[in-house]
Amino acid sequence: MRDETIVTVINKSDDTGSGRQKKDACLVVIYGAELGRKYNIHGREMTIGRATINDICVSQDSVSRTHATLHTDDNGVRIRDNESTNGTYVNDHKVHEAWLKDGDLIKIGRSIFKFLTGDNIESSYHEEIYRLSTVDGLTQIFNKRYFVETLDRELSRARRYDRPLALVMFDIDHFKACNDTYGHRAGDYVLREIATLVRDRARKVDVVARYGGEEFAIILPEIDLKGAGVMAEKVRALVENTRFVFEGRHIPVTISVGVAELSPTLANADDLIKTADARLYKAKEGGRNRVVTD
User: Are 8 and 98 in contact (CB under 8 A)?
Assistant: First the structure.
């Protein structure tokens, strides 16, 4: 996560200022407690913070008592950080004050809100709720539910047409130590960066998902075990060679990877997952930062 302070200068010539028309707006929780909850933005001012007196209460130790304030006027909605301990982030940038636009992601503590505004706010909200059923709010890649449903479909298709199908599963080595040493915000940064690295490396037909915690999965249609092993090794090396820097501190990151392919001995998707997962843990037992394919 980039840690840079943005101060938005508000002036009448700025098209993000007085050129706006006031529209309905809300915040939707896309990561954290109360996932999917909508907070309608109304009135001139709303506060966000740990204390229960806030309009939006985020009960986390990393959130200040009155962390940030939303201001609404005829120009739109802007957010101001109230000199919080851990900062307010808009689209991964640390901000002092910023105008919000439709689709912006606001991170306060470990919670992420999505700002929605427009003429049909209810439609936008329901679309976001549907998206939350398939996408992980923190990493913005597919979630476990979508992964499981897709793997079932791909497995059936592979068997029907006698085509190869492989599964790669990996998790971050010593991730608890990362959180303990650098903090949970740094851990979130690492998860997001790895998700982006792998998603950008994958083909369009591949499905990259956050399986849970620090564990990820990649469904590889039309790829056999050998090809999946090559791809997994490229991902492993990419992560090892990427410099992860959060708030000026370098965080060494590696992953352990297990690879499996569909075979007659595997009865269903659960068997394929268990095989890949067992090889992942074999990679960990073998010293970590490696790929195991058998």
Answer: yes
Helices 184-201, 225-241: crossing angle, 10 deg rounding: 140
Distance CA 177, CA 170 (A): 17
Q: Which residue has the tokens 């201001």?
A: 71
The CA distance from 142 to 131, in Å, is: 10
Give the relative orientation of helices 144-161 and 269-285 as an angle to the nearest 10 degrees: 110
Contacts 24+ apart (CB under 8 A), 266-273: 268/155, 269/148, 269/151, 269/152, 269/155, 272/151, 272/155, 272/165, 272/167, 273/151, 273/167, 273/169, 273/217
Burial zone of 42 (CB within 10 Å; 0-12 exposed, 13-18 middle, 19+ buried): exposed
Distance CA 258, CA 279 (A): 4
- List, for residues 263-274, the tens digit of each pLDDT value: 999 999 999 999
Tell me what pLDDT residue 19 has: 47
Catalytic residue selected from 97, 193, 214, 261: 214
- The verdict on whether 127 is a catalytic residue reads no
